[in-house]
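Researcher: Sequence recovery benchmark, item below. Answer with residues only.
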């Protein structure tokens, strides 16, 4: 009989436990030493918690929020960067889910909190309104504005589509010498009155009077070789006329401001557009009629500081009575609303974007009332 067979089972277990304790073996018998356990505990304690993880996503979230909040402070002196940012300002919201994914991947509570407190709050404050349908039924007049495009391959179809839109006032921009007669013929079936100056015109169901051009102080600068010849040849790209309504006279402006370009060396070139915006703001400021509607392709969004002189006097129908951002350009995949319906002295009841025509812009429409 061996020694182990002579000892009771309990005594054998005690001996085994004492042996493990003496050799530093843990409960599993495979060598978790007390020193190892201490090191593991210290490592866990030193590991950053959820509020200390992800400092980079948190910092980027704060910077994104400040960029949107303080966009007006971004200088325009260097390549027009301020106007470029403001043109696409709503799209900065797409960076929020990217940063959220980074925060979740890092399991960073601080980054998530920074996102919610700064960029999400700022974006909703700036653009939460368009997410709500502000439109109301009714309206005394329906107005439509459309840059029909100098290179439109089907101007006849565009004219017929616009004539069927139900608009009482129809403003067209970028009319060429070749298409003017066509638009006159097609639209005369619905609109007995019209006024055209250069490349812009207004077709109306109601009588027009006192039509005159508005000098936009055009200077094509570096675009002289790229603008359509018919557009460049026209000095008149804006007009002012009076519409006789049952409620009294309504002053209507139709404008096509200068183009903008992202130039390889000059940055975001807006000089011609900005001069036109200033001239248009001065014309509206001198307007004696309290009821004013401005229709046209302004080649910029109302967030752009270049239009402060205009937006301080007129209000966007889309902002007041639209649903969504109402992006109008480019027609294939709209990313910005550069075609505007702006009003003063009348109320916008609804605002919307019409279906694509042969132009690279979408038509914009609004119902207004007294």
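Model:
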């Amino acid at each position: 009989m061996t020694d182990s067979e002579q000892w009771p089972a309990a005594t054998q277990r005690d001996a085994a436990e004492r042996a493990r304790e003496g050799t530093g073996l843990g409960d599993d018998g495979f060598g978790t030493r007390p020193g190892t356990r201490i090191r593991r505990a210290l490592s866990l304690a030193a590991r950053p918690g959820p509020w200390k993880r992800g400092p980079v996503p948190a910092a980027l979230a704060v910077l994104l929020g400040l960029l949107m909040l303080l966009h007006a402070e971004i200088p325009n002196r260097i390549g027009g960067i301020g106007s470029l940012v403001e043109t696409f300002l709503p799209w900065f919201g797409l960076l929020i889910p990217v940063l959220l994914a980074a925060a979740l991947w890092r399991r960073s509570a601080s980054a998530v909190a920074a996102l919610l407190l700064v960029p999400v709050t700022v974006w909703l404050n700036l653009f939460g309104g368009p997410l709500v349908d502000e439109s109301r039924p009714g309206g005394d007049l329906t107005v439509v504005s459309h840059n029909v495009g100098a290179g439109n391959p089907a101007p006849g179809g565009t004219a017929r589509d616009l004539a069927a839109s139900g608009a009482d006032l129809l403003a067209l921009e970028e009319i060429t010498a070749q298409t003017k007669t066509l638009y006159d013929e097609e639209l005369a079936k619905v609109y007995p009155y019209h006024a055209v100056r250069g490349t812009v015109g207004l077709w109306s169901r109601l009588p027009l009077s006192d039509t005159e051009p508005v000098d936009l102080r055009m200077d094509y600068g570096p675009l002289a070789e790229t603008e359509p010849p018919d557009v460049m040849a026209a000095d008149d790209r804006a007009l002012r006329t009076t519409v006789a309504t049952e409620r009294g006279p309504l002053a209507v402006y139709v404008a096509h401001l200068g183009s903008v370009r992202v130039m390889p060396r000059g940055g975001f070139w807006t000089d011609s557009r900005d001069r036109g915006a200033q001239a248009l703001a001065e014309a509206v400021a001198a307007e004696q009629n309290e009821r004013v509607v401005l229709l046209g392709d302004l080649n910029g969004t109302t967030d752009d500081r270049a239009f402060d002189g205009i937006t301080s006097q007129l209000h966007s129908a889309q902002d007041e009575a639209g649903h969504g951002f109402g992006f109008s350009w480019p027609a294939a995949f709209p990313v910005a609303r550069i075609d505007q319906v702006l009003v003063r002295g009348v109320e916008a009841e609804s605002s919307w974007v019409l279906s694509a025509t042969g132009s690279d812009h979408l038509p914009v429409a609004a119902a207004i009332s007294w």
